[in-house]
Amino acid sequence: MIGLALKTLRFHKGGLIATFIALFFGAAIVVGCGGLFETGLHKAAPPERLAAAQVVVTGDQRYPGTRRDVFPERIRVDTALMERIEAVPGVTGTAADVSFPAAVLDDRQGGAPLTGHGWSSAALAPYHVEQGEAPSAAGEVALDARFARQNGVRVGQELRLALRGTPGTHRVTALVSGPGSLDPATVFLTDTEAAEATGRPGRADAIGVFTAPGTALGPVQQAIEEVVGDGPAQVLSGDERGWAENPDVIAEGGKLVTLASVFGGLSAAVTVFVVASTVGLSLNQRQRESALLRAIGATPAQLRRMVLGETLFIAVFATALACFPGPVIGRWLLDAFARGGVVPETIAFRAGFVPMAVGVATALLTALGAAFLGARVATRTRPTEALAEASLQQRWFSRSRLVFALLFLGGGTALALVTANIAGPSAGSTAIPATMLWTAGFGLLGPGLAKVITAALRGPLSAVTGLAGWLASLNAKARTSRFTGAVMPVMLASGLAMALIYLQTTQSSGAERAFRENLRADLVVTSVSGGLPLDLVGTVARQPGVEAASAQVSTIGYIDPPAPAKPAPGSGDEDDEPDEPEPTEVPMLGVTPDGLDRTTAFRASSGSLAELTGDTVALPTAFAEASGHELGDEVPMRLGDGTRTELTLVATLDGRRGYETALLPAAVLVPHTDSGLLPQIMVKAEPGADRAELAGTLSALAADHPGLRVADRAALTVVQAEADETQTWMSYLLLGMVVGYATIALVNTQVIATTERRREFMLQRLIGSTRRQVMQMMAVEAFLVAVAGIVLGVVVAALTLVPLSISVLGSPVPDGSPWIFVAVAGAALGLTLATTLLSARLVLRGKPGEMAGVRE
């Protein structure tokens, strides 16, 4: 039978090509996402500025005892380690690297931001001197040659620089250049002045280790690890050295695993629907052939082998070819994520054999599963009933189909309930899988639902379109399987598009509302020099026209879990390892209590925010209750740089679920951020004060604080919108990939559903129908297919979006323009009509007599 299958493939080119296209694109996307997954596991980041160091010692950004939780602020290492590391056999030297914010304050450079380093770290790239001599005394700097050329800076020129917010005059003694793509906005100071500029003398971001040529790195790295000990540090070599340059790689690389799983999983699920629909439709077009084989004695097993054999033959070629564009798609996705700010640009694409094998296996299993399901329809009919069954193609219901449909719909219902009751920012994580479950459930019940929709439209269509509408409705009624196979891709494309677009607009609206509800300030004070001193808050508050001012610095911290209970002596469980409890991640906002109630909407539900001084904290009520802490308790916490502290709980806060924030005194939080400076000061104007005049008054403070900038409330909203763009961009990329593939399937299916009807069109032409009448009938059929698919897509989208909107907005109505629905429905209708009519026109090009020999 397999030989027969291969011989008959050339008579079913339409089904073959459609299945090939569906498998090829599906496998390519899954292979690409598999490469992304492996890239996220490796987190490879080839070093640039530390490339000359064979080994790098840097802080371990991971929460102790976990691999998932990562501190957002840089953890630094003690420079006292350098002397002990240099004593390791094979090590020829070390160099400490520190980074700090700087800015050129000359008017000509317009406050251009720079990154400062100590001169000894120039050897880590390595940089080399193009002109002049290296800085050797305080007040001397070496400037990146590319930045100097861009801004017209020469050796010997005096520059006004702000180092960590402190202005001063420095002389350029050298222009230096480094390898390839290094950031040109770099300035080098003497090591002593650089250590002072960091505000953390004796601490380094990283220690680069140089080894003798030919030295084996394994033993050296192991020896250095013994020197470092169990402290919060890690010893890196190879591509992992890039972690020291950009600690975000550790956290964002893990995010890449999640993104690849979501993209790949959703793409694989769509592939299942697309391939199952395409193969099923192709088999439905060949039911007369299957019926004849059954009538002349072919067994069900033989027919199944024939169908599986020809599908496997197509699938092997499609998936083999998909292995070539798969890695290209993976690299393209990684580059797109990097450009959108989702992951650091330093992450390198690393994909081996495993993701390719997984993608191929997924595509093959999908194809064989779809073919097996389609073959069951062709083989379960008795030989005496086969020809009659093939002529109608109405049978669709089975007990197994109903059971699986109910399972999928039940899963969708469960996820919908979860979505409606979790925090708004997390609602999308369950809403997207729910979409696929709803799609699967309605896909299995599709024939019945399509019949109901067609029956409801039959009367109006016949009244409006006459004979064409009557014939189209009869075709849909008589050929249920074919009609449903055409409807399902429309449902998939329109349902996914509406669900994913409105999901994003709703979540963006929720984040914007939370931001606006909390914003009470009229102006914000920032600085291009890296930050502001904390004592400037009081100065701003005393300016004429200022009602209140408060510091604001944000980061992420953790509430330490309670220590696991030890087994009681004699209980027999002394040898059992207790489960390590997980820390609770909590957004942190450093503030000054004076003016907090007027610049923000934070209000204490218990306790007082005025007591936020010293080592204190105000926790969201939900976090306080979950951790079992009450007012006056000492709360063990980890700050953004991993520093462990105990803070007294002085207040609890109520806030929008999912957007809760812990408040700490800015004086506690600022020293544990990367810059060690205050990023912004929120200002509330007095009633009736002219805000433009007040902005001018505050801008005058730049005389004592160079680089100071003042922006209005609208600028704050723009910054928030830009921060939300990353999530928005990522969602639309997902939408483009998945819906684009579903759209290909839509076009693919409509073409095969139309071109396989040559005999039917021939009979209509022979009994007197004109081309125009056949085209009118096909236009009405295409309209029926599109409307049925769009209606089912709307149902899928609604069942996904209503619980999401309840979670995010507190309302069952999602946020977003109604034109989104109009655009999606119009695109689905237009594509269905266009592909159907173009295919029908190609079929009808010949004369009726010439079509008499057409095979079915």
Number of strand segments = 23
Q: Return residue spans where pLDDT drops below 50 for at least 5 consecutive residues.
A: 389-394
Strand content of the residues, in percent?
15-25%
Radius of gyration using CA atoms only = 33 Å
Major sheet characteristics: 10 strands, mixed
**CA-CA gap between termini:** 20 Å
The pLDDT mean sits at 80
State the helicity in percent bands: 40-55%
Helix/strand class:
alpha+beta
Quaternary structure annotation = single chain
Shape: elongated
Number of helical segments with 4 or more residues: 27
Subcellular location: Cell membrane
Biased composition (Acidic residues): 572-583
Domain ABC3 transporter permease C-terminal: 262-381, 734-847
Transmembrane segments: 16-37, 312-333, 353-373, 402-424, 444-471, 483-503, 729-753, 774-799, 819-844
Structural account:
- The chain has 856 residues and is of the alpha+beta class.
- The chain contains 27 helices and 23 strands.
- Strands 14, 15, 16, 17, 18, 19, 20, 21, 22 and 23 form a 10-stranded mixed β-sheet that branches. It has a 6-stranded mixed β-barrel with strand order 4-5-10-7-9-8.
- Strand 19 (634-638) and strand 20 (644-653) form a beta hairpin.
- The longest helix is centred in the C-terminal third of the chain and has 43 residues, at 713-755.
Topology, pairings included?
Layout: H1 2-8, H2 13-42, E1 55-59, E2 77-78, H3 81-86, E3 91-97, E4 100-104, E5 113-118, E6 128-132, E7 140-144, H4 145-151, E8 158-163, E9 166-177, E10 186-189, H5 191-198, E11 203-204, E12 206-211, H6 217-228, E13 233-237, H7 242-245, H8 248-285, H9 287-295, H10 300-322, H11 325-339, H12 353-379, H13 383-392, H14 399-420, H15 428-444, H16 446-465, H17 467-478, H18 480-518, E14 523-527, H19 536-541, E15 546-559, E16 584-591, H20 596-599, E17 604-607, E18 616-620, H21 621-627, E19 634-638, E20 644-653, E21 662-665, H22 666-669, E22 680-685, H23 691-699, E23 708-712, H24 713-755, H25 758-766, H26 771-809, H27 818-843
Parallel strand pairs: 5-10, 7-9, 16-21, 18-20
Antiparallel strand pairs: 1-12, 1-13, 2-11, 3-12, 4-5, 4-8, 6-9, 7-10, 8-9, 14-22, 14-23, 15-16, 15-19, 15-22, 17-20, 19-20
Main location: membrane
Keywords: Cell membrane, Membrane, Transmembrane, Transmembrane helix
Subcellular location: Cell membrane
